[in-house]
Amino acid sequence: MILHNKYDKATLRQRLENEDFKRVTLSFYRYVIIEDPALYRDDLYLRMERLGILGRIYIAREGVNAQINVPEHHFDAFKSLLNEDPHLVNMPLKIAVEDDGKSFIKLIVRQKRKIVADGLDDDAFDVTNVGKHLNAKEFNQHWNNRVPS
Q1: DSSP E strand stretches across 51-96
Q2: Domains in the chain, ordered, with CATH?
Q3: What does the pLDDT look like over 67-103, one tens digit per residue?
Q4: What residue spans of 51-148 are helical by DSSP H?
Q5: Nearest-angstrom CA–CA distance, 42 and 139
């Protein structure tokens, strides 16, 4: 089974230009321990490829980092894919506000040593200790209620 792109750039660009549907461009990341990044990479590639998702996803033992676009008609299936994955359940998505959906021409899912080049040792901190995500309203309430220093 082929788990990578097999077409040249010109073919991929032409294929994207000929699409008669919109794409949703988004990003997400999560620090989570992935016990077997190589196996997870292959599985995630297959699941994303089936939905026609394009973009780049980095997988490391410390988590997942993705910038992708999803065919609009597969967006609900994509969200289900995330929620069926224990590593990606309830993933906050950062959806691009202004985008033509043509930001990527192929799907790349690559295993890396780290999902973010932060220069820190792997044992410097617990990547799963991420705190609570706040939306803008919650952040403003928290900020306005803080004790002045």
Answers
A1: 54-60, 63-71, 94-95
A2: 9-144 (3.30.70.100)
A3: 999 999 999 999 999 999 999 999 999 999 888 888 8
A4: 75-84, 136-144
A5: 37
